[in-house]
């Protein structure tokens, strides 16, 4: 397949990836979807977790949090609150974030925002899984 997609993953503070890819697969809030060159225009909310893409047949993974995907022509733009490529995930940091979130959820103190603690736990678990699946 000759045609490729220009994939850009952007967060408020940096460009995480800008690369020609063959395929993108994402977990949307309303279901999983795959994008090949020639896809119809699309705007979708992404679930926090894994975003996969293929470069010359090699599958690669990234973590995205709080993201949107926009497909227009042969450009796929991911706008996320935070994102890291699998190789750039700091495993120790994710483990620490997981243990902080677990402690907050265990103690269930009144001043702890449970939804926030659960979201933090989910980000940490997803980062650990994505790091381990490299
Ligand atoms: P932490 O409590 O460790 O900050 P978090 O889930 O609250 O984790 P985010 O708000 O998603 O962190 O991200 C804040 C910034 O830190 C972003 O730039 C993100 O890419 C980076 N970041 C967070 N955790 C990691 C990690 N485990 N490895 C690499 N970068 C990380």
Overall structural domain count: 2
Percent strand: 35-45%
pLDDT averaged over residues: 94
- Under CATH at level 1, the class of the largest domain stands as Mainly Beta
Largest sheet: 9 strands, mixed
- What structural class do you assign from the helix and strand content? alpha+beta
What's the CATH H-level superfamily name of the largest domain?
F0F1 ATP synthase delta/epsilon subunit, N-terminal
CATH architecture of the largest domain: Sandwich
Number of E-type strands: 9
Query: Which shape, going by the Cα principal axes?
Result: elongated
Q: What Rg do the Cα atoms give? A: 16 Å
CATH topology of the largest domain: ATP Synthase, domain 1
Order of helices and strands: EEEEEEEEEHH
List keywords for this structure.
134 residues, single chain, binds adenosine-5'-triphosphate, ATP Synthase, domain 1, 9-stranded mixed beta sheet, alpha+beta, elongated
Describe this structure in words.
The protein has 134 residues and is an alpha+beta fold. It folds into two domains: 5-87, F0F1 ATP synthase delta/epsilon subunit, N-terminal (ATP Synthase, domain 1), CATH 2.60.15.10; 89-132, Up-down Bundle (Single alpha-helices involved in coiled-coils or other helix-helix interfaces). The protein is 27% helix and 45% strand.
Topology of helices and strands:
Layout: E1 5-10, E2 15-21, E3 23-28, E4 31-35, E5 42-55, E6 58-65, E7 68-72, E8 75-79, E9 82-85, H1 91-107, H2 114-132
Parallel strand pairs: 1-8
Antiparallel strand pairs: 1-2, 3-4, 3-5, 5-6, 5-7, 6-9, 7-8
Helix pairs in contact: 1-2
The structure holds adenosine-5'-triphosphate.
